[in-house]
Amino acid sequence: MVREGSPAKRAAIVRAALKVFLAEGYARAGVDAIAAEAGVSKRTIYDYYGDKERLFLAAIAETRAGHEQGFEALLQETIDDVTDLEDALFRFGRVFATEVAKSAERTEILRLMIAEAAHFPRLLADRPTRTALADRLEALHRRGLLDVPDPVEAAEFLGVLVTGPVQNRSWYGAVPLDQDEIDHLVRSGVRIFLAAYGR
Amino acid sequence: MVREGSPAKRAAIVRAALKVFLAEGYARAGVDAIAAEAGVSKRTIYDYYGDKERLFLAAIAETRAGHEQGFEALLQETIDDVTDLEDALFRFGRVFATEVAKSAERTEILRLMIAEAAHFPRLLADRPTRTALADRLEALHRRGLLDVPDPVEAAEFLGVLVTGPVQNRSWYGAVPLDQDEIDHLVRSGVRIFLAAYGR
DNA sequence: GCGCTACTACACTGCACGGTGTAGTGTGCT
DNA sequence: AGCACACTACACCGTGCAGTGTAGTAGCGC
Fold first, then answer.
1. What GO biological process terms are annotated to this protein in UniProt (chains A, B) (predicted)?
2. If we measure between CA atoms, which residue out of B101, B71, B67 comes closest to residue B179?
3. Which of A61, A110, B48, B115 would suit a FRET pair with A71, their CA atoms being 20 to 30 Å apart?
4. What residue ranges do the domains of chain A occupy?
5. Chain A 116-175, CB below 8 Å of chain B: which residues?
């Protein structure tokens, strides 16, 4: 008995669900709390999504799709049409790492996915952001600005260099870091990347 | 009414608790299941540890202490008394990354800590393994084998370079990787590190 | 044997929570 | 007005589970 309902209400439910799941984790999160947060009756949630599990998966999928778009936009505005390569990579990494360290939705969702990976195998999809980044690195390689024989691997390392230390020190967003520390770590990460992959 | 009991029984309980917590996560894990796994009555668990939360924290602390010792031993047998630096770092990274990628206890516990970080702030202690690694890098710096002005930061990056891609691709141990892929990623990570910090 | 301690087996309480059923209300369409 | 539909409010069921209380047993020192 799944009602399709209005897109606005679906969005409200999914947003509320994400918030509660992120704060509590899947098992602790209560559907009553989600309903209250969404300003919707519990019954409506069940009419829309059937059960808690489907609601969870929908919330994750919806949000991840938004993140991919944001990531694509960030790539366009920092790495495409680059003049100063180090600066471009730094600006890219800065935004990315700052999201990570500020207990932002992005990292929390990663944390949630890691936590629930064993219980929801469907969460372990591919990682489109890495391939999007790899495409850019390959383009920079063709333009002679980088020496990147394996763009996918290089994208993996760039991502790790730029976000890894920030993730570790912030415990995946659970402890906030100040911007100076983030900037410093990102700067160092970019330098390391260029030392290895620069011309 | 906390009984101190026998060390052997405490160990059995903690081991069983860890197993169930790792498999199920904190909220889903049932004390009955832990009791069954430990071959002990539920009542005994409560007599020993008081409540589920304390049992959880004890299980984490106990296991982490063991890991620190193991890490220290690994450092000694790979990085101390080094002749071929790249090879030494590779051997170090290989063991470390393999643990990570094989869904081993070590990563699962990290995953669990990440998942529960928000609910158990006491889990977010310092990270003694990083400082242990930093000490070694500083020694290599003094011996003129590396150029490491900030050993703590360098240790952060070495750790990230060696384990990051493996963690990402294996979804923190949820998906096993084959040894060739691990070796390749570790090799690349070490080369990047040396490109940035080598003499 | 006696007493003490550690432990088990098990029944039980209280509660939180997933999920359902239903009566009633608001809104918009014809 | 009358109908259809979306939604809410709320009561309700079943269950799983943290935590407790207790009676009984096995072992051990004396």
1. negative regulation of DNA-templated transcription
2. B101
3. B115
4. 1-50, 63-197
5. 116-119, 124, 127, 130, 153, 156-157, 159-161, 164-165, 168-169, 171-172, 174-175
CATH topology for the B1-50 domain: Arc Repressor Mutant, subunit A (1.10.10)
Tell which CATH architecture fits domain B64-197: Orthogonal Bundle (1.10)
Give the model's pLDDT for residue B2.
65
Q: Is B40 near strand C, with its CB below 7 A from some atom of it?
A: yes
Q: Looking at the structure, give the CATH architecture of the domain made up of residues A63-197.
A: Orthogonal Bundle (1.10)
Say which nucleotide is closest to residue A42, CA to C1' distance. Answer: D8
Helices then strands, counting H and E runs in chain A, come out as 9, 0
- C-alpha A177: how far from its chain's center? 18
- Is any atom of strand C within 7 angstroms of residue B42's beta carbon? yes
What are B63-115's pLDDT values in tens digits? 999 899 999 999 999 999 899 999 999 999 999 999 888 867 888 888 888 88
Spell out a b/e string for A104-116, using b for 16 or more CB atoms within 10 Å of the CB, else e: ebbbbbbbbbbbb
**Using CA atoms, how far apart are residues A172 and A115, in angstroms rounded to an integer?**
12
Beta bridge partners of A146: A198
Two tokens, residue A63: 């949000």
DSSP structural state of residue B32: H
Rounded to whole angstroms, the distance from the CA of residue A177 to the C1' of nucleotide D7 is 44
Contact call for B157 and A192, based on CB within 8 A:
yes
* Chain B hits for A192, Cβ within 8 Å: 157, 161, 192-193, 195-197
Nucleotides of C under 7 A from a protein CB: 6-11, 16-22
